[in-house]
Amino acid sequence: MLTPAQFLQATGWFAIGTLVFALLTAIAFFLKWGIRFRLVGATGFMGVLTAGLLGLSFEPFTQAQIPGAVPYATVFDSGSSQVTITVPNSITATELEATLQQAASNLLKPSRIGGGGQTTPTIRARAIVHQPGISELVYVGQVTPGTSPTGERSPIVKVYPDALAKANQAAS
Q1: Which of 6, 10, 24, 125 has the most crowded Cβ, counting Cβ within 10 A?
Q2: Co-location of 85 and 114 in the same domain
């Protein structure tokens, strides 16, 4: 996957190409070439590509790395307010808290709005407890965005100790 620095470098090259096309278009109008209106379209398209690459250089692909977090997988994402991640059964409370903070940093973006009657985006962490003949989903924690009186946006992490103990017991 390309990094934001590589997108910024590509933006520079596309900007130069756009300027070259604009200069060529100006020459075509001055000399009344037959392709001058096609060059206007090509120049406009180059401008759109340049603006798109510039937008991609604002680090939309960077992922936060919180110390102590364990790898997780997103198993459900409604696109607005509900996200579910899966964590291993053997996770500890401190690892779960770090993992939920990492998931909040990566997934709770300003573009997520509440939908379906829910106003607050929520990320829930779950584990699967396997018993003979049945598998049970156990929700071990959740995180929601929060705002402090100073205006700082820090996530509110809730760990469910009973559910975590049940998942840990199944892991051993």
Answers
A1: 125
A2: yes
Range of the domain at 96: 73-171
Q: Number of structural domains, the chain?
A: 2
Identify any residues that bridge with 142 across adjacent strands, giving them in sequence order: 124, 158
Angle subtended by helix axes 161-171 and 93-107, to nearest 10: 110
| pTM assigned to the model | 0.65
CA distance 58 to 8: 8
Digitized pLDDT (tens) for each residue of the chain, 172 residues in all? 678 889 999 999 999 999 999 999 999 999 999 999 999 999 999 999 999 999 988 866 667 788 999 999 999 988 778 899 999 999 999 999 999 999 988 887 766 665 555 567 889 999 999 888 899 999 999 998 876 666 667 888 999 999 999 888 876 6
